[in-house]
Amino acid sequence: MFRSTWRTLCTGAALVVFLAAPGVARADVIGDWNATAQAEAVLIRPTAHGQARGMAMVQGAVYDAVNAVVRTHQPYLLDLEKVDVQPFASQDAAAATAAHHVLVKIVAPERVAALDVAYQATLNAIPDGPIEQDGIKAGEAAAQAMLDARKDDGYMAAFTPTIGTNPGNWRPIGWPATPAYDPDGWVGNLKPFVIESQSQFRSDGPNALTSGEYAKDYNEVKELGALNSTKRTADQTTAAVFWQFPPAALYNRLARDLAAPARYGLDTFKQARLYAMVNLAMADGAISCWNDKYHWAFWRPRAAIREGETDGNAATIGDPAWESLFHPSTGAGLTTPPFPDHPSGHGCVSGAVLRTFREFFGTDKVAFDINSGRFPNQPRHFERFSLAMKEVVDARVWGGIHFRTADVQGAVMGKKVAFWLQKHYFNPVKR
Fold it and tell me: If you placed Cys at 59, which of 19, 75, 76, 275 could pair as Cys (CB 3.0 to 4.6 Å)?
């Protein structure tokens, strides 16, 4: 037997994987490959929502591979009639093969050698013979099904945003001289993973500029989200910065923590199902959100407050010098994101993921710590998934980058994605 302990550290473009020597008990292979995929996703597309596609591809394939062995649930893409493997096939070989075979097709060429070494280390822990070979066979079929399904799916397709000049129209910082454009604008037109169309869950849209609801949102973010706010507490500032981190890293680590023996001790198949549900919900949450963003193309608080005298609302007093907490002067690498306000991307993605966790575990009342690279080894604790969602909504206001309505409607969109996934995918097979 063999124990492989993976510690994936991503610093810039470096991923270091530590493998123990053969000879002792084997570790959690499916969790290890989830951690590896998460680290590689940062290199695949180093923007928060661009990572979601790669993770969804890997974990969707891993689920299909393991399910091809146990055959207890609906497949995601794989035609089980065409994959004849024995029920005693190695689930570890299936999971590792699916993850590896997808990853090597989507990472940069220089990453392939390290993944090959890691894959061989996993196989070295599995006895040679039909058990291993059938697992590999399932993994190969699942990986190919995923790669075929995602061919020409709109990844990195050309995208040109529409920039308006009227009050309420979105325009990025630096416009018109040197605007910062959205590197992930293509996400809104990406082929969805589980929902029927990118616009299936269109939001209600932002509040009318002259409405009382808009004035309420405006004045809240103007006060609490300002760089020099005297009303925002120290903990609110910490929370705002904490959550400004790629969701793939936040939520895949949480999935691994919850799957651990000390918590729920999920077996290989249950982990495969959890990782697939979380990552496919995450991907479609982002797709729905980005499609909706450019449908409404609503301005961010920074532009709105600086141009507050033009919106026709007597209750919104403009401040031409207003800056949000997320300003480069903080030295934290933060800035106003270069895409429209409504709906909130983190709201959509977190709504999809946190509701998926709730559906998977069958309860909202799960205590957990969540970790962010913004504050290493300083997790935030929650007693319920819904309480984490509430803080995500608040945090975007405290950071000064979203109106509350964008956060709330984003969370609703994400939940709708989660409900759709729960109803139509990954359910037990009726015997």
Answer: 275
Collapsed DSSP state (helix, strand, coil) of residue 382: strand
Task: Look at the pTM and tell me if it is higher than 0.90.
Answer: yes
* CA 165/CA 173 separation, integer angstroms: 13
- Alpha-carbon distance 146 to 98, whole Å? 9
- Report how far residue 79's alpha carbon sits from residue 347's, in angstroms, rounded to the nearest whole number: 34
pLDDT, average across residues 323-335:
90
Helix, strand, coil in percent for the chain, rounding step 5: 50, 5, 45
Looking at the predicted structure, is the pLDDT value of residue 3 above 50? no
- Provide the 3-class DSSP secondary structure of residue 218: helix
Ramachandran angles phi, psi of 380, nearest 5°: -105, 140
Burial of 158 (0-12, 13-18, 19+ CB in 10 A): exposed
Q: Hey, which residues does 10 pair with through a beta bridge?
A: 15
DSSP string, 300-362: PHHHHHHTGGGSS-TT----TT--BSS-GGGSSS----SS--SS-HHHHHHHHHHHHHHHHHT
Q: Supply φ then ψ for residue 324, to 5 degrees.
A: -85, 165
Residue 408: pLDDT band (50, 70, 90) is very high
Other CB atoms closer than 10 Å to residue 4's CB: what's the count? Answer: 21
Distance CA(389)–CA(343), nearest Å, equals 15
Bridge partners (DSSP) listed for residue 165: none
Report CA 72 to chain centroid distance, whole Å.
27
**N-terminal to C-terminal alpha carbon distance within the chain:** 35
Peptide bond into 109 cis (omega under 30): no
